[in-house]
Amino acid sequence: MKIGIVGLPNVGKSTLFNALTKTYAADAANFPFCTIDPNIGRVNVRDDRLDRLAQIAKSEHVVPAAVEFVDIAGLVEGASKGEGRGNAFLANIREVDAIVQVVRDFHDADVHHVAGSVDGARDLEIINTELILADLQTLERKLADTQKRARSADTDAKKRLSAYEKIHETLDTGKLARETDLSEEERLSAKDLHLLTMKPFLYAVNVEESRLDEGIAALRDRIGVTRPDTPVLAVSAKLEADMLDFSDDERTEYLADIGLSESPTDVLIRTAFSTLGLTYFFTAGEKEARAWTIRRGIRAAEAAGVIHTDFEKKFIKAEVVSVADFLACGGWIGAREAGKVRLEWRDGVLGDEDVVYFKIGS
User: Fold this and answer.
1) Could you report the per-residue pLDDT of 132-152, keeping only the tens digit for each?
2) Tell me: the pLDDT tens digits for 169-200?
3) Do strands 66-71 and 39-44 pair parallel, antiparallel, or not at all (unpaired)?
4) Measured between alpha carbons, how far is 80 from 131 in angstroms, rounded to an integer?
5) Contact 218, 239 (CB under 8 A)
6) What confidence tens digit (pLDDT) does each residue in 12-35 have?
7) Are 321 and 355 in contact (CB under 8 A)?
């Protein structure tokens, strides 16, 4: 799964990418288009409970869940018509599964803004408008052929046409395609369009360090995001850049000194992971304690197949306990004695972040 980091030039995308990946892989300079080719980095999902599981199980190794972030070239007005890095930008963003849009809301006279002033709502509208225009181009190329096929009594084409027309109406009013009210069947029919604005969105508002504790409602109002199902988070790319070479202990101490219990980028990583509809389950043994990435709502047998394909075929049952109960009971023995362990059969569904022990046949 890949999450694309997008935004206007000089809003802090590459600085944020470096903070997320804890590297200096992306050039972060005070001029437009310092990012040309996309930077890709694997980012671990920080979860202190995994370390505690490893302590209980005396595990030799700890393997967290992970997701890939992609730092994509800055977009400017007219990108849908090829302005700036428009064509490359759109091609790169089609390859990601979700979008983190970085919106600048900090003031720094030394960091040039391509529009000449800081206005998060305006910037967000520029980005979304270009993505919507690109989607309209894609959709309109498909519509004529689909309409023709629908008139010839093609049943599948009629289903697609219904979805296409609804989405076109949404885009035409300046809204993202994902805001269209579609049935599950219509949503599946529209998947072949690969629309940019059908992807899940998350907005990271880049603010000064002193404003990290500002209420999310105020940030939503300022950038104009009102839908409650669209996550909006505050980050400070400069703060994260300052901590890039810190050890974990130094980082924790510094954050505590400014009144934060954890880094905003850690919150961003978890939120992005969840936005993709992903979660993870834990396994813990002497060899390793590990978080295994799965789709939310996956069947128990499918989850076993994430570990090894043969495990899905030979699945018998799974012993499952919530991570909170596992930690509170000190491991499997205590959890079983306390009656906290449940059995899940092949079609059972794992909860978010369960600890699982699979029984596999020979």
Assistant:
1) 999 999 999 888 888 888 888
2) 999 999 999 999 999 888 998 888 899 999 99
3) antiparallel
4) 7
5) no
6) 888 898 888 887 655 444 444 444
7) yes
Residue tagged 């990435």 (tokens): 293
**Alpha carbon distance 98, 163 (integer Å):** 21
Residues 33, 37: Cα–Cα separation, whole Å = 10
pTM higher than the cut 0.85: no
The count of other CB atoms within 10 Å of the CB of residue 3 is 24
Q: Is the pLDDT of residue 302 over 90?
A: yes
Q: Distances in Å between the alpha carbon of 20 and those of 202, 240, 321?
A: 15, 8, 31
> Shortest CA distance to 192 belongs to which of 164, 214, 166, 172?
164
Q: Report the DSSP beta bridge partners of residue 359.
A: 317
| Amino acid identity for residue 66 in this structure | A
**Structure tokens given for 44:** 């671990």
Residue position matching structure tokens 């437009």: 32
Residue 276 region by backbone torsions, left for phi larger than 0, else alpha for psi between -120 and 50, else beta = alpha
Output the average pLDDT for the chain. Answer: 88
Question: Buried b vs exposed e over 88-115: b needs ≥16 C-beta within 10 Å?
Answer: bbbebbeebbbbbbbbbbbeeeeeebbb
Residue type, 9: P
Residue 214 DSSP code: S
Q: In angstroms, rounded to a whole number, what is the distance separating the alpha carbons of residues 357 and 319?
A: 5
Distance CA 100, CA 268 (A): 9
Residue where the block lists tokens 């002033």: 117
Cα angle for residues 288, 282, 66 (degrees, 5° grid): 85
Helix (H) or strand (E) segment spanning residue 120: helix 120-151
**Closest by CA position to 64, among listed 273, 249, 264:** 273
Structure tokens at 115: 């529009």
pLDDT tens per residue across span 220-253:
999 999 888 899 999 998 898 889 889 889 999 9
pLDDT at 324: 96
